[in-house]
Structure to design on (661 residues):
């Protein structure tokens, strides 16, 4: 039996991705079990789900503690979540990362393969929903599921244009996946954010950048920021990047376009 | 005919059970983790896939009350979870009092939190409903269909709950075979109205319900008849399980209990629902190590299979009973006390141990179950083990 753990953020579709992969692997003749973890999910908050793949009915109903493979849907998640915990020796990490390989900050007795799922999703879907792109990469690195099965499963989940966009993302990711790299000589990942710490800066895909000269001090962004991450100093807005999740409300609402929305570079 | 499979979550399997049973009335009020059941049903009703009256009620109390009224004339269905079931408590008694074969799905949710345990249905155990527990999504679908057959049997005529753990089943995707509609129609047959709607039906319903409403009897008679019906259900459940096996090729133990790898064992673990499912893996691994331990999964909680446990006591020296519930103030969990009660009449009784596990969604792991089985084996060897009742996992 193969056990996989998904790490993602609320909104990236880890749960839907798990279900699509469970369906696709079922089309390959496997018995599958896709287990989402439900709690108080919010957009951007770390989420986890599990997938078991076996030859016959799977009786286990507990969670996966020692996965054979970890799939990480977000490049910066490793800073706040111990994503490689419990991963079997010689296992594999498949991570969404622009460069991947030895640059992911992950190290240990396993291989790391990667795909730039965020950019593929932005190009094909128009939003940083990375679940389907990562499944294309999964098909490439494991060879355990065919693109046809994935596409069939996606067509079952969505119809029309949305299905089409996601299938394009899967195909593109399949082509652009980086081969597994051995990282056994690298130090293990360092979890920087401590539990309970109010630093959500790693949740952002886009960052608001304020042009102080343009700001007229109208206080709209100050009032509307859902995270109270904007304060007013000398009648000008100041963004606290520790609390900003990159939702883009300020950019949208600024009457003088003083706030630019720039994609984060990793 | 090619078998139709779909990878689906447990809640969808429940919705399919209601659809395939050709339910004509659905009273719905959403509550986590049951919510998607009524969402699937509302979709099915809206698209015309299912021909039923779908009514969104303003709460569970009226949900049950409207289902009572509807089930006097048509096959009806409702579903709920945890606190929602508690809110239904009073009408639950009324449903069994009126002997209506209403079927309800309960997705276990703790009465003191969001995560699953059996406290919701255990709090309703004396309402006169039959209760059937499920281990996986396929079992949810199949038990749903069987529940209608059991409840509507003239020897039973009692409302029935079929239940499974929230989250662990309700939102977990796995492949489920969808039975053929024609076969389900043959299996269930049309709904027999317990109360007449037209004059020509009067004779029939008098046969079903007549004795109940006769004024020759004293006030206790309703309870006595209800009790007889529940005891009859033990026979009916077994029959329905066998018939289901013949028709669809699947069955769940003997309908009352499922004995898993119990040949030539010294001890058994006893569990219910998803805990029993996980325990199967623990038993597989232990037997590979040469340990003689099996598993008994309780499928029917009400009626409680006393006779089955008396029979099982004949081949085992120790029983380790796992309870995802607690009856505060009583030593041991609810199935533990029921099993001990069943064994009391025997001359030779096995040692019984109790484990409280999985309360409020506390994870029950394969390793944890292996340890429980090993403790039970130790007791089977005649060694002293303590405590008799143990809380497992982080408390």
């Amino acid at each position: 039996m193969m056990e996989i753990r998904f790490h993602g953020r609320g909104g990236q579709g880890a749960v839907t991705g798990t279900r699509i992969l469970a369906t696709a692997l079922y089309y390959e003749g496997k018995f599958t079990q896709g287990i989402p973890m439900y709690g108080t999910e919010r957009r951007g908050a770390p989420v986890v789900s599990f997938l078991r793949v076996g030859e016959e009915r799977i009786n286990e109903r507990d969670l996966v503690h020692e996965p054979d493979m970890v799939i990480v849907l977000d490049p910066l998640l490793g800073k706040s979540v111990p994503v490689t915990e419990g991963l079997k020796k010689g296992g594999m990490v498949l991570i969404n990362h622009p460069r991947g390989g030895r640059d992911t900050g992950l190290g240990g007795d396993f291989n790391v393969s990667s795909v730039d799922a965020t950019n593929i999703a932005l190009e094909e879907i128009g939003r940083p929903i990375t679940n389907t792109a990562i499944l294309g990469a999964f098909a490439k690195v494991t060879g355990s599921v065919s693109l046809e099965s994935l596409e069939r499963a996606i067509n079952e989940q969505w119809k029309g244009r949305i299905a089409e966009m996601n299938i394009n993302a899967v195909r593109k990711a399949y082509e652009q996946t980086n081969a597994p790299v051995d990282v056994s000589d690298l130090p293990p990942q360092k979890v920087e954010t401590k539990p309970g710490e109010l630093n959500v800066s790693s949740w952002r895909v886009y960052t608001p950048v304020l042009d102080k000269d343009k700001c007229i001090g109208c206080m709209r962004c100050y009032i509307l920021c859902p995270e109270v991450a904007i304060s007013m100093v000398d009648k000008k807005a100041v963004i606290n990047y520790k609390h900003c999740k990159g939702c883009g409300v300020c950019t949208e609402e600024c009457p003088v376009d003083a706030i630019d929305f720039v994609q984060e570079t990793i | 005919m090619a078998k139709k499979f779909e990878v689906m979550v447990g809640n969808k399997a429940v919705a399919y059970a209601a659809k395939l049973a050709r339910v004509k009335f659905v009273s719905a009020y959403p509550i986590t983790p049951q919510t998607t059941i009524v969402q699937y049903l509302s979709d099915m009703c809206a698209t015309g896939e299912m021909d039923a009256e779908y009514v969104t009620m303003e709460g569970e109390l009226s949900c049950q009350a409207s289902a009572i009224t509807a089930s006097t004339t048509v096959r009806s269905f409702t579903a709920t979870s945890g606190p929602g079931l508690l809110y239904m408590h009073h009408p639950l008694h009324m449903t069994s009092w009126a002997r209506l074969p209403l079927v309800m799905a309960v997705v276990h949710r703790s009465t003191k939190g969001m995560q699953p345990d059996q406290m919701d249905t255990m709090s309703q155990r004396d309402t006169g409903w039959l209760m059937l527990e499920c281990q996986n999504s396929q079992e949810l679908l199949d038990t749903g269909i069987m529940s209608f057959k059991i409840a509507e049997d003239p020897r039973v005529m009692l409302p029935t709950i079929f239940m499974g753990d929230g989250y662990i089943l309700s939102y977990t995707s796995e492949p489920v075979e969808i039975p053929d509609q024609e076969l389900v129609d043959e299996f269930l047959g049309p709904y027999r109205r317990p109360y007449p709607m037209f004059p020509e039906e009067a004779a029939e319903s008098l046969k079903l319900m007549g004795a109940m409403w006769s004024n020759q009897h004293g006030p206790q008679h309703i309870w006595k008849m209800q009790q007889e019906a529940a005891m009859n259900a033990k026979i009916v459940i077994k029959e329905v399980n066998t018939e289901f096996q013949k028709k669809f090729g699947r069955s769940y133990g003997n309908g009352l209990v499922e004995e898993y790898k119990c040949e030539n064992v010294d001890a058994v673990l006893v569990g219910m629902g998803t805990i029993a499912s996980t325990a199967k893996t623990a038993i597989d691994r232990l037997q590979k190590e040469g340990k003689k331990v099996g598993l008994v999964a309780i499928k029917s909680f009400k009626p409680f299979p006393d006779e089955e446990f008396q029979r099982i006591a004949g081949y085992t020296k120790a029983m380790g009973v796992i309870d995802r519930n607690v009856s505060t103030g009583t030593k041991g969990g609810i199935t533990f006390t029921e099993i001990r009660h069943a064994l009391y009449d025997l001359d030779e009784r096995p040692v019984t141990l109790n484990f409280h596990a999985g309360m409020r969604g506390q994870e029950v792991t394969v390793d944890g179950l292996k340890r429980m089985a090993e403790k039970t084996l130790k007791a089977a060897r005649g060694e002293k083990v303590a405590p008799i009742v143990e809380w497992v996992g982080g408390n």
Chain A has a mean pLDDT of 92. The first strand of chain A starts at residue 2 and ends at 9. Chain A touches chain B at residues 18-19, 22-23, 26, 31-36, 38, 57-63, 65, 153 (CB under 8 Å).
